[in-house]
Amino acid sequence: FETGMGIWLLNYGKCDDIEDISGNDNHGELQGGKWIKGPDGPALSLNGVNDRVIIADSESMYLEKAWSITSWVYVNKTENGFGHILGKRPANGTVANYAFRTSGNGTGWEAYFARDGWKGAWGQGNVKKDVWLYMTATYDAKDTIKIYENGVEIGSVGGMGKPGPQNDTEVNIGGWTNNTSETLDGMLYEVAIFASVLEEDDINELMEKGLVTLMPVEPSGKLATTWASIKSRQ
Fold first, then answer.
1. pLDDT in tens, 155-180
2. Structural Rg of the chain based on CA atoms
3. Which pTM does this prediction carry?
4. Cα–Cα dist 196/49, whole Å
5. pLDDT tens digits for range 82-124
6. Residues 21/11, Cβ–Cβ less than 8 Å
7. For residues 187, 28, 170 and 227, what is the CA-based torsion angle, rounded to 10 degrees?
8. In b/e form, how buried is each residue of 93-124, taking b as 16+ CB within 10 angstroms?
9. 31 in helix, strand or coil?
10. Dihedrals phi, psi of 178, to nearest 5 degrees
11. Which of 2, 123, 185, 188 is placed for a possible disulfide with 79 were both Cys, Cβ 3.0 to 4.6 Å?
12. DSSP label of 223
């Protein structure tokens, strides 16, 4: 199943062109930011103001059913609210296809979208700062958003209903379109979004093995997009 719609390793150590290895060509452009030493090679540091990666809108970036967002994230102690890991949300209006962030005071985790108002799991768990965490948010396209920290569920909220409507805005890693007050003050690597619900076993496998190790190299030299261990649950 080609469930990975965008996979950005963020382990380059240099350059502003951010490669998507999912096979969907959702490559991004780094705006600001700096490369630092992460726990397993380079990682991307963002200043919480205008640093981000911008990915152009595409059909594969609109997830009309289920979705999962996952990333290694380090939240700086200076983060004081709404630090986005990833978001597809226009600059104006109450429209959002998907987003994952810290809460308004930077102490909890939130995943959300918008359809006839905001729908989300608000203030789940506690944000541990100045430490690397493997964070995941899932939405089943019917009812429930779940949030996981290091492969363990820390929040589950029902009543979401059907997905949000399609929009043509870009995807931002570290923020959302043209916004400078809800960007992440912290560090990221191995950010991905899937068009399916990752279960706890899937999340733990990604956390332990990393994104690249699940993607065998084909004879042609292209990275395969078949994820044997991650089954589509749309």
1. 999 999 999 888 899 999 999 988 98
2. 16
3. 0.90
4. 31
5. 999 999 999 887 789 999 999 988 899 999 999 989 999 999 9
6. no
7. -80
8. eebbbbbbbbbeebebbbbbbbbeeebbbebb
9. strand
10. 60, 15
11. 185
12. B
Q: Does an H or E element contain 193, and which?
A: strand 185-194
Residue entry with tokens 């979705």:
67
Quick one: how many helices (H) and strands (E) in the chain? Answer: 1, 16
Domain ranges of the chain: 4-214
For residue 44, what are the β-bridge partners? 35, 188
Query: What tens digit of pLDDT does each residue of 121-135 get?
Result: 999 999 999 999 999
Q: Do strands 67-75 and 84-88 pair parallel, antiparallel, or not at all (unpaired)?
A: unpaired
15: confidence class by pLDDT, cuts 50, 70, 90: confident
What integer pLDDT is reported at residue 216 of this predicted model?
44
Tokens 């093995």, residue located: 209
Number of CB atoms found within 10 A of residue 62's CB: 20
- CA-to-CA distance for 90 and 106, rounded, in angstroms? 22
Q: Which strands make up the sheet holding 96-102, listed edge to edge? A: 17-18, 28-31, 52-55, 171-173, 84-88, 96-102, 109-114, 118-124
Specify whether the CB–CB gap between 31 and 51 falls below 8 A. yes
Residue with tokens 């912290």: 186
